[in-house]
Amino acid sequence: MSTILFVPLPERGHINPTFKMARALQKRGHRIIYCSLRDTEEIIRAEGFDFECLFESLFPKGFQAKNKARLGTLGGLARLGFLRELALQQTRMLEALLEGEFDALIARTRPDLGIIDVLLPEMSLVLHGHRVPAVVLNTSIPLRWELMTPPPTSGLIPDGRLPNVVRGAVDWGRIVLDAKLGSLGSWVGLEPDAMKYRRALALKHGYPLSGLDFGGRLTGEHDPMLIPCPREFVEFRGAKLSIDYHYTGPCIDLERQEPDFPWERLDAARPLVVCSLGTMVIQAEQARRFHRSIAQAASRRPQWQFVVATNHWTEPLPGPVPENLVSVKHVPQLQMLRRASAMVTHGGFNSIKECIYFGVPMVVLPMQFDQPGMSARVVHHGLGVRSAIEALTPDSLLQMLDEVLEKPSYRQKLGAMQTLFQAAEHEQALAESLEKHLRRA
Description:
Blueprint: E1 3-7, H1 12-27, E2 31-36, H2 41-46, E3 50-53, H3 63-71, H4 76-99, H5 101-109, E4 113-117, H6 121-129, E5 134-137, H7 143-148, H8 164-181, H9 192-205, E6 225-227, H10 231-234, E7 246-247, E8 272-276, H11 284-300, E9 305-309, E10 325-328, H12 333-337, E11 342-345, H13 349-358, E12 362-364, H14 371-380, E13 384-386, H15 394-406, H16 408-424, H17 427-438
Parallel strand pairs: 1-2, 1-4, 2-3, 4-5, 5-6, 6-7, 8-9, 8-11, 9-10, 11-12, 12-13
Helix pairs in contact: 1-17, 4-9, 6-9, 11-15, 13-16
């Protein structure tokens, strides 16, 4: 039996894809340990995995919820000031890494393999110094490929509404700005200090600097990089990859724990529209526009049912709330998609993969990070439609829902991609592909 250490970014969108891998390895007799912030412990232990806490003095329990709630209400200079505070907290974390906090955890757990989030390169650097092989897990589209692809085949925005060069520049500006300013300081960032500390860690642990990109993140050239998604969804237009990424199945863990839901409020005979903007913080005005549009659309289509996840949004839905709209903090998304007719989503990688897996057409409202690129792929493959959330209205929302529900081409193309996704989801093959890296030790 080997000990395998998972170090995901402490966000549900990064943790959920690891459960399929961890469970497949656990069933083959390996010991699985997750290493993360205290706020993630309950989620991870509920799935039956061991947990080790890092940086508890810097990020005590409740840190993420408190800061997400605060960040969601701030704008302008106040938001920038708060983000500066979080950046300073991240610098303290990097100092703790240099002083050996993760080294002590490695000495205590003695892992044989590390599976490290691509946004936490520091952990791979330290593992290298302890001669522990690492696999980099990229829970998104490989952005380095997007950056290096020539603009005419970029694939970020293929709908031609703006010239590709202009649109590509706009979207990359949004991605870089969001990565720099919107990370909550919970280990991610491109702050000026980050590269300095990452270089220091690389030198301390003998990690080749060629394995880091311009922001100090792992390139996949030294440690293998896994993309938990079939290649056919990610790549298109004949673009050539600069690195040989290792694509797996979609890594959707059908066994994961999900929240309760008042199922008695739903009618199986009526179309169901699931609505969620994910668990990351979004701007208050975007959230208000989204919830207002959903509520008004529901009132205009009483023959449909709408379920909306408010997630970290705490304002009440604009009233009066129609009878056919159910609002909950978190939805049991896997169970919900088994019966959904359509989903209105922010375009997070996991939500899109789960919609494909269950054959649910999408209305995508990308806002930040990799979401523009995800929505571009949904449109390109004919799996749904998209719109800027700033342009969302009840009328436009209903028009988009009508399109994906009434045009048979969406279901046809979803069926083909769904078949591909389900065929790629082999638990044994996934475990064996990861076990190959154990032998590198």
